[in-house]
Amino acid sequence: MYGKVGSINLVKQITAVLVGAGARGRFVYGAYANKYPDELKIVAIAEPNEERRQLAAAEHQLMPGQVFESWEQVLSNRKVADIVVISTQDKMHYAPTMRALELGYDVLLEKPMSPSVDEVIAMAHASRKHNRLLSVSHVLRYTPFWSKIKEVIESGIIGTIASVQLSENVGYFHMAHSFVRGNWNKSEETSPMILQKSCHDMDILSWLIDEKCTGISSYGSLLHFRSENAPEGAALRCSEGCAVERECPYSAIRIYEEADTHEWSRFITNDLTPEGIKEAIQKGPFGRCVYHCDNNVVDHQVVNMMFESGATASFTMSGFSHDVSRTVQIMGTLGEIRGYMEKNEIVLYPFGKEAIDILVTAEEGGHGGGDEGLMREFLKQVRNENNNGGQGLTSAEASLQSHLMAFAAEQSRLAGGSSVEIQGLSEQHGHSVCS
């Protein structure tokens, strides 16, 4: 099927099965199909939650026979679309991915690939075995900001990279929402924080330095969001007469009910009326006091990395920042780059010369335009039908090293910061890390 017959360059419309119609499924991948119907059409949905399933079905005008409760039903025995987009929870990635590849689908998979090293390696192998695309949603590579930084590095103007410092400022409200109260608050049920939230950052460091990471050490802990740190008078829920709710920056009432927009409240309820939001705070998990939740993932972590040439990198993840942002400093032998992603600010400092402001064109969409950039490039690959053995900018093979870096960082953290060799970790699981 091709869109806009009257246009000069006809674009083949790609059909998709959406497995998982939660936040990413509906608000990123589903939204892209609605915004660019000539490029992408959702023709089937698998989602166990009935309310989400019906909302997504209505948004894409699907008939009952196109809507399923489980991925097993829609991926039973034959292809019904060109691609499968998998946006389920972390531990639910492996089985539908392997089945989709076996059926001959190209697959776009939410990050992280899996909290299991063996499953990550198996999925990368399966994409090659079946000669299908398996792209991972490392969306930062597709942003104008990081693409421009990569371009400047490759120009040679800063010489050879000696050291990189990258900070991910999670934002105090994002930390409370996703990793204290929300779906990713327990590592045994989802993934460790360094893998779930920061595999983006491991991927960017791997991509920018463009070498094998050889060794990693890491420290981090759950410092603040614990019951012993609850202020005197704190209730179990923000809506239950908490004595400190009005002063607490983590108040669910302030974050969801009194906010100027529904940016965060849309993730706690599908009923965005004042009554619906109030009920979600009173009865749902997002109304709990942040000091009385069942969370165990870290709220801050640092990672130090050594690369093949001797270049080093340091990464800091913190839930204690006023905004959600990333900042980077890249130090080369001939110059330096400093960047602030959310402001699209990049400054180049060639040694001995004047500083240069690098122009970055801002794009719409989440992750600094990376969400739409990822979809655009993946669909181009699918249309070209030139899978090159499953390779691509964020193919499973390309993403494998960054996942191994995250696994090594968590292993080091749990061992008190002792150094972990990437090659040794890889060999334990019968795989040689690709460069």
Task: Walk me through this protein's architecture.
It holds the Pfam family GFO_IDH_MocA_C. The chain starts with a strand and ends in a 7-residue tail after the last helix. The protein has helices at 23-35, 50-59, 71-74, 94-103, 117-129, 144-154, 172-181, 193-196, 199-209, 252-257, 274-283, 370-384, 396-414, 422-428, and strands at 2-3, 11-12, 14-19, 40-46, 67-68, 83-86, 106-109, 134-136, 161-169, 213-221, 300-307, 312-318, 325-332, 335-340, 345-350, 356-358, 420-421. It has three domains: 2-138, 3-Layer(aba) Sandwich (Rossmann fold), CATH 3.40.50; 140-225 and 296-366 and 394-428, Dihydrodipicolinate Reductase, domain 2; 238-287, no CATH class. The chain is α/β, with parallel strands linked by helices and 435 residues long. It has 14 helices and 17 strands. The radius of gyration is 22 Å and the shape is globular. Helix 5 runs antiparallel to helix 13 (396-414) and helix 9 packs across helix 13 (396-414). A nine-stranded mixed β-sheet has the order 16-15-14-13-9-12-11-10-17.
Structure summarized in a few sentences:
The protein has helices at 23-35, 50-59, 71-74, 94-103, 117-129, 144-154, 172-181, 193-196, 199-209, 252-257, 274-283, 370-384, 396-414, 422-428; strands at 2-3, 11-12, 14-19, 40-46, 67-68, 83-86, 106-109, 134-136, 161-169, 213-221, 300-307, 312-318, 325-332, 335-340, 345-350, 356-358, 420-421. The chain contains 14 helices and 17 strands. It folds into three domains: 2-138, NAD(P)-binding Rossmann-like Domain (Rossmann fold), CATH 3.40.50.720; 140-225 and 296-366 and 394-428, Dihydrodipicolinate Reductase, domain 2; 238-287, no CATH class.
